[in-house]
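Researcher: Following up on the earlier apo prediction. This time include the ligand. It's zinc ion, with the SMILES given after the sequence.
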Amino acid sequence: MPGPDKLEQARACELREFPLPELEVDSALLRVELSEVCGTDVHLRDGRLTGVPYPIIPGHVSVGTLERIRGTICDVNGRPFAEGDRVTFLDVHLTCHSCWYCLVAKASTRCPKRKVYGITYGIADGLTGGWAEYIYLKPGVRCIGMDGIASDLYMAGGCSLPTSLHAVERADVQFGDTVLVLGSGPVGLSAIAFSMLRGAGRVLCIGAPDERLTYACRMGADDVFNFTEHTLTVRSDWVLQRTDGRGADVTIECTGSPAAVTEAMRFTRDGGRVVVVGQYTDHGVTSFNPHLDLNRKHLDIRGCWGSDYSHFHRAVDMLRNPRAAALWSTLKLERYALTKVNEALAAVESGRTIKALVVPTR
Ligand SMILES: [Zn+2]
Ligand SMILES: [Zn+2]
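Model: Understood. Below is the ligand-bound prediction.
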C-alpha cells in the first residue's frame, strides 16, 4: 500500500518482492496461511488513519506456520514453539509496560510506544504485514498456538474477535441484560456473539444490509432491524417496544458513523451503559443534548480503543469452546489471492462481503 500522498496510487495496492530477513535472536519467520481485509484496511488505503508510515504491507491479523525460529519463542505458559507450529500472533508489539499509561492509568492500549503490524509498522520496519507470503515476527511478538482451532474458524472472526471482546468487557454485560448492537459488520457480529456468551438475556441489532442481518441472527441476535429502511423515530420505537419503554441496558456502537453514537445514547435506558468502539477513524462530529441525552439519563459512556494481549488470548481461547466455535463457523468467507487485494478492499468497502480473507500462497 503506497500511501495516499500519491493520489493516483492512493486507491491501489501493488505487489512487491522483498528479500527474506535476517532473523534476530528470539524472532521467527511466519509463513502466512491466511490474512484478512477489514474496514481498517479500507481506511488505510484512503489515508484516514494518522501515524501510518507508508508504504506499508497491510494485514494486521493473520495465521500461519512458524517456518524458522532463531532462539526461543514461548507462549504465555512458558512452552517453547517449534518450527512447523501453526500460530497466530498479537498484532500489537512493543507495549512498554513501563510508561504512565501502562503503569498508572492501566490503559495499555494507549501506550505511546506500541506498534501494530500492518498499521503503524511499515515496509521500513521489515515484513510487518499479513498480505504477504511471510511475516517477520520480531523479538517480543506474542504468539498463540492454534491447536484445536481451524484457521478458517479463527479468521472468520479475525481482528473483530479481540476488538469486540474488549468492547463487551467494557460494556460490563450482566446476566439478563438487553444488549443493543449498532452495526452488523464484523465487529458488530462478534459483539453479538460475545454478548450472548457473556449472559445477555437478549441481543438486538440494528444494521444493514439484510444479508448481514441474517448473519447477525446466526451469531445470536434475537431481533434485527435494517436502519436504512426506517427513520430514527421508528428505530427508537423499535428499541423501546422491546425494552418495556426504557431502552437497552447496554448499547455497543460498532458502526463507524458519528451519528450512531448519539443514537446509542438515545436508545439506552437511564442508568445504562454505552460503549463506543466503531469510531476507529475520524469520521467527524456529532451533536447531542447534554441534559437530555447524558446527564439526566445518568448514562455511562465508555470509549474502547484497540486491544491488549488479554483480549486476544481470551478471544482465541473462546474458539476452543464448541458453542462459541459454532457461531463463528456460520460466517461466510471470501478468499482473495495477493493479486486481488484491491478487489477485496472494494468488496469490504461496499458491505457486500461478510469476511474477506487474503490467501498469499502462490
Ligand atoms: Zn507503555
Ligand atoms: Zn482489522
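Model: The chain has a mean pLDDT of 96.
Researcher: Noted. I'll compare it with the apo version next.
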